[in-house]
Amino acid sequence: MSSRAGSLVFATAFANSLLGGAALSNGLGPWDWIAVALLFGIGGLIVFMFSPYHPYTFRFDSEELLDQYVDGDRPTTMSAMRRALALRIKADMAGNWRIIQRLRVALQIALLFLLLDILAWLLAIAGV
What we know:
The protein has helices spanning 2-24, 30-50, 62-70, 78-126. By secondary structure, it is mainly α. The protein starts with a helix and ends with a helix.
């Protein structure tokens, strides 16, 4: 997902530098303002996608595992421990999938904004 967001950064910078310079040479019009607003929208979505604060879970704390399954009042059998760990992995996968889905939706919206941004710049250049 990060590599796709990085490609989006490049495509946005390239399109806006190429088309924005040509469009802004004849002053600011309504299409220019729309394109700039879309650029800020893309930027906000990119910051969200690159944010390091997405709470992924896919690690086990060994001390917690020993306390829970080995050193407790009654040690757990291996089959019960495997079952509990498998269920925990499944719950972690479900939680991570929700995060990945939010990032995918943000990427899709940013790509739509990029297409609209390019269209707005082209309309500004055309003087419509």
